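The following block was generated as part of the benchmark described in Methods. Ligand: arginine.
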Amino acid sequence: MKLKSQINNAIKDAFDKAGIDHEPMSVSEATKPEFGDYQFNGAMALAKKLGKNPREIANDIIDHLELGKVVTKAEVAGPGFINLWLNPLWIASQCETAHSDERLGVGKHENPIKVVVDYSGPNMAKQMHVGHLRSTIIGDTLANLLTFLGDEVIRQNHIGDWGTQFGMLIAYLEETGTDGSVCLRDLEQFYKDAKKRFDEDENFANKAREYVVKIQSGDIHCLNLWQKFIDISLGHCEDVYSKLCVKLTRDDVKAESFYNEDLPQVIEDLVKQDLLKESDGAQCVFLEGEEIPVIVQKGDGGYLYATTDLAALRYRANVLGAKRISYVVDARQAGHFKQVFKVAKESGFVPKDVRLEHVAFGTMMDKSGRPFKTRDGGTVKLIDLLDEAVVKAKEAIKERENYSSKEIEEIAHIVGIGAVKYADLSINRESNYIFDWDKMLSFEGNTSLYMQYAYARIQSIFRRFDGKIKGDILIGDMLEHRLAVMLLRFEDVLRRAAEDAAPNQITTYLYELVTLFMRFYEQNPILKEGVDEATKMSRLQLADLTAKTIKQGLELLGIQVVDRL
Ligand code: ARG
């Protein structure tokens, strides 16, 4: 349920009754328990506007606030804050409703839209490396989240499958013959070997150049070789996706080459709009306030990354019908996206009301603050990193329970991959991020293990309780009250995270929820002797709703839970 809007409505009613004519202002979560559950901080701004004393205004609002169903108590504090306490009976009944609902009471968007999420986008010439990890993980979460909230999400994997280096690669693939697919097992090496041939042998280099022209002019033999190369390369990526439990499939691939045919048309349409200027032989769009123009066609007729993105933008807006298009791409491409978005709007390729956003993220660093590399300075292959995560996870959990060897494999996979994903998703995406095995595989702190452990702990309560939950949720003390309010905030958190494309808002919430639950559980025993039946039933329901919320939250992040940990 949308908890905040319930409270905002109460405030709005009070505004109306008090004759305060002002656009809606929103309450926020109280930062300390003594400030109540929610706080209204708008009186200060109102006071300035109306030339009155803020405390007076706050009192006026309180005098007209209907206390009872939702809010039971309101108090003016400090310079004019209003602290609000929610009605325990009401939150209890709302938690019961959430508990009996498979969506945990989370509603869907009133006006769902089509959203394109562009993520992962690896380059086919090379093996996926850690740089693609963040895009893949953040993008998949955003797509999961928007889908859960009812939008129609179209996942788009804009793979780099076109460019001059493919001439070299397919020339080498042909040269190595049937062994090609074997060599391709290690793309990085394949690329290096091909490059070596290119640099050392003039005949080979010429052949590679010839192949570029041939692929571009649609030569069947070359295109077949190219297709073979792309298939194998994409297969590598799919291994990574499946290890990562990421939902991208082949159907989501719309490669750069898909837009090739439209590129001459893009140029023609820009000419029609009178947006193109020649500069040093290249076709450019000069944008107001930008020093560097957007180059859309080189002097030799070749097209660029930006040209393809313009074609993709109009395809997504006009053919796919997207109203929001989110690009989950490295922050270093910010300039590129700012420019192509502007050109797309100015040229009318994309209607004005379509929301275009660059969901930017920072660089992955090692513990010493340098970009993440192998010991000898090479790029770390994603697949190796994920395998290492599973090995390390096994170490971290093996002593905890009496697992069978099959179980430990399964759980280590869930825990290891979960740790890598959670660590990435839990920081503000725009910051650079420090990759630290010890921190991410800890049972303490804001980690996936902490959440998975809390979930498993609740499951162990239910293993010991063999009955049927019945009866009401009763809010008995402050901790139960806070836990219940926290549980009801789930929908607000998800909506905000979807709006801001910020998965870390979900992890922050889960961390607060679990921390609160742990305290609640320490102080409020559930199955211990002496706990009366009604209290036991109520606490079981709160615990179960907590577990379900953790599970749902993690699922949106693409992380699984386990029953024993
Ligand atoms: N292949 C690109 C890269 O690795 C990312 C593609 C992002 N998507 C896009 N529509 N430009 O940098």
